[in-house]
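Our working data are protein records whose layout never changes between entries. The record below serves as our worked example for the rest of this section:
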Amino acid sequence: MAQDFYFQQLQMMVQPMRDELTRLGIRELRTPEEVVEALEGEAKNGTTLVVVNSVCGCAAGLARPAVAEALKHEKTPDHLYTVFAGQDREATAKAREYFGDYPPSSPSFAILKDGQIVHMIPREQIENRSLEEIAASLKAAFEKYC
């Protein structure tokens, strides 16, 4: 009973962090099956952005706002998805299987083209950078791959 209460409280706390991305039109993938359906289905054609969301401060202050800014760019990926590290663990682990040899990192951004990883922006390239620098990195990747 206490564990259920804790889980409900945690879900209420992270919901705004989820909403920050879904309000942008980014589809949340919460199960491994949803990841497979998305990344082996519609995302097999065109470009795809997968945002690995997180509860950390750099996700809140930098990663999510940078995605919002970058999606205002003229060129954007055809498909937009997010998984939530630490919350939807199995979905996140499944998504990371599509990121090639890149080590797990959250927050992070993966860009796939025709189902293959072509660009990754890991946490190390997010923290200690400005929102503008991160958005510019995403926009440059959009220009190159979209």
About this structure: Helices lie at 2-22, 32-39, 57-70, 89-96, 131-145.
